[in-house]
C-alpha cells in the first residue's frame, strides 16, 4: 500500500539494478517496424499517416535549412507522447516526470539552435536580441531582458513538461485516494469524486499529448528563428 | 527577413552604426551593451580594494 504520494516519481530499481533504461527503451518495442510492402496493415498505415502528417505540419513554417531536423523532431515527439501516455497507466513510472531527463532534452537541443544561428547568420541572431524600433533609452535594458529570456528558454522547456506531468500524476493519486477512502463512509461523495477522477484522467491524457507537442513545437520555433 | 528595412531609414553619424532599426545597427547595439557590461565587470574586478587601517585597542 503506497503511503507516500511521491514514491511514484522515484527512479525504479530492482535488487539495486536501475530500471530507468528499461523504462526509456520500452516505447521502441511497442511500435511496429515499417515493412517493405506497398500496402500495410491498419496499425502500420495509421502510424505512417500520423508521422507524415505531424512532420508536414511541424515543418510548414520552417525553411529548407530546418528540414534536416525532421527526423529528430518527429522521433522526439513520438518518444515523449508515448512516455507520457504510458505513464498514465496504473503502477507505471513516467520518465518525463524527471527534471533531469527533460533538461537533458531541452538544453542540448536549445543550445544547438543557438549555435546554428550564431554560426550561419550571426548578425541576424544577435540583432534579434533587440526588438526593432526600441526607443534609445530602453536599448540596454531590453537587450539584457532579451538575453535573460533567451537563457530561460531551456529551463522553461524542461520545467514545463516536468511540472505538468508531475502535477497531473499527483492530482490523480490524490483524488483516487480520496475516492477510495470516502467509499465506505460517504458513498455518494465517493461517486462524485470518482466522476471527477474520470474527467481528470481524460484531461491528463490530453495534457500528456499536448505537452509533448508543445515541447517539440517550441523547439521548432527556436530553430525557425535561427535558420 | 534580415535587413528588409535597410532602405527605409537614412542614418547619419553614430546612428548609422548604432540604431534599433537596421539589423546591423541592432547587432552593434547588442555587442556594445555586452562590451559595456563586460567592461563594468572588469572594472570592479580589477579595482584595488582599500584596506582599512588596523588600529591598536
UniProtKB/TrEMBL annotation, chain A:
Keywords: ATP synthesis, CF(0), Hydrogen ion transport, Ion transport, Membrane, Mitochondrion, Mitochondrion inner membrane, Transmembrane, Transmembrane helix, Transport. One of its GO terms (cellular component) is proton-transporting ATP synthase complex. Component of the ATP synthase complex composed at least of ATP5F1A/subunit alpha, ATP5F1B/subunit beta, ATP5MC1/subunit c (homooctomer), MT-ATP6/subunit a, MT-ATP8/subunit 8, ATP5ME/subunit e, ATP5MF/subunit f, ATP5MG/subunit g, ATP5MK/subunit k, ATP5MJ/subunit j, ATP5F1C/subunit gamma, ATP5F1D/subunit delta, ATP5F1E/subunit epsilon, ATP5PF/subunit F6, ATP5PB/subunit b, ATP5PD/subunit d, ATP5PO/subunit OSCP. One of its GO terms (molecular function) is proton-transporting ATP synthase activity, rotational mechanism. The gene is ATP6. This is ATP synthase subunit a. Pfam families: ATP-synt_A. Belongs to the ATPase A chain family. The keyword Transmembrane applies. It is a multi-pass membrane protein. Its main location: mitochondrion.
UniProtKB/TrEMBL annotation, chain B:
It is a single-pass membrane protein. The chain crosses the membrane at residues 25-44. InterPro entries: ATPMK. Keywords: Membrane, Mitochondrion, Transmembrane, Transmembrane helix. Its main location: mitochondrion. GO terms for cellular component: mitochondrial membrane. It is found in: Mitochondrion membrane. PANTHER family: ATP SYNTHASE MEMBRANE SUBUNIT DAPIT, MITOCHONDRIAL, ATP SYNTHASE MEMBRANE SUBUNIT K, MITOCHONDRIAL. This is Up-regulated during skeletal muscle growth protein 5. It comes from Aldrovandia affinis.
